[in-house]
């Protein structure tokens, strides 16, 4: 009997959220064990469960996988969300690296001082609308298909939806110049597994609040 | 006739070096274009060659690939350096991602202010000897094989070899507590394609110097 994957992380989004998205979109049920205090992280380290002493860690198929990208690649490959050949995989990888860079900037915001944060929000908005979103808008325009790569749902689509929603939380009209991305967002939100994940009560995590930010700093000592 | 891959970057290691290592280790000849001005970079961005207006850029098999990890994954997959199945690929990915975190410290080092350099070398040394190298020492000891994954040469071995040499340039005695890694380093150095890459005159780039830092600052306009 196949066990459900088990995710080890804090109760927030962080680097684990993309993994939650991908599993959910693939229709895979998973369990979560939350690191609530520093001692929980120390225990995982002392047990030898964390290859490089870091989380995320996902127990899946008899492995204790670490490193966000390695975990995502494995899930994408296993659930056929990684294209049909090497070239499609390359396109998916490129697209995902772009959305990773964009979401990485947003993820760092809660931990920045107010003036730095304000400057970065402006930078993120500029990058989203001039560097990142135009790429995906053009991709959809050029082939006229519903999905970014190979006319089939892939990791790249799921990651892009996550990035769009996260950027919209910063600036709600961020997609105003991108009609195809608006349509993409609508379509993707209606994919049954994704629709379910977007509903209250799912394992999707909310943005961090002040108390959680302080706790994360304590757990990871920064 | 298939064309050689063409690499576009500056004339230095930076984020292109791992790609040079992997192509060389795979025995693949490649061409290089070295940018010298910011205008050249902007022009590449304007003519649509750079998906996210960033380098590295590798033209291979009719594609203009950007983003290091995407490029490296493609090369690894194409030249059979990515394991035999999903699980071996997972191991290779984990190892490569870990090593990449260590290499990030090395990548950023030339850009740190002079007063921070000593502390940064200490951090590199600490992370290498306490977090990363012990993992690979243990892996090699446990299975007793020559290569990290699947008893077969892979991307993970190339990346580890690059990292060992890069750290040794900063911390010459870093392998003193790691006999397995010392043996690994020797074996890797003697593999024909790697041996060739380690010889003078190969596409391998020298350690970053002030000139490299100045070029990067000028072309990429880093703050």
Automatic annotation (TrEMBL), chain A:
| Xref: Gene3D superfamilies | 1.20.1050.10, Glutaredoxin
**This enzyme's EC code(s):** 2.5.1.18
Q: Which GO terms describe its molecular function?
A: glutathione transferase activity
Q: Which GO terms describe its biological process?
A: aflatoxin metabolic process; detoxification; glutathione metabolic process; xenobiotic metabolic process
All copies of domain GST N-terminal, residue ranges: 3-83
> Which keywords fit this entry according to its UniProt record?
Transferase
What Pfam families does the entry give?
A: GST_C_3, GST_N
| Cellular component, GO annotation | cytosol
Residues in domain GST C-terminal? 85-208
Q: Give the protein family.
A: Belongs to the GST superfamily. Alpha family.
Q: What is this protein called?
A: glutathione transferase
TrEMBL record, chain B:
UniProtKB keywords:
Transferase
Pfam families per UniProt: GST_C_3, GST_N
Q: This protein's superkingdom?
A: Eukaryota
Q: Which InterPro entries does the record associate with it?
A: Glutathione-S-Trfase_C-like, Glutathione-S-Trfase_C_sf, Glutathione_S-Trfase, Glutathione_S-Trfase_N, GST_alpha, GST_C, GST_superfamily, Thioredoxin-like_sf
GO terms classed as biological process: aflatoxin metabolic process; detoxification; glutathione metabolic process; xenobiotic metabolic process
* Protein EC: 2.5.1.18
| GST N-terminal domain boundaries | 3-83
Q: Where is the GST C-terminal domain?
A: 85-209
Q: Which GO terms describe its cellular component?
A: cytosol
Annotated GO MF terms? glutathione transferase activity
What family is this protein classified in? Belongs to the GST superfamily. Alpha family.
Name by which UniProt lists this protein: glutathione transferase
Which organism is this entry from? Answer: Meleagris gallopavo (Wild turkey)
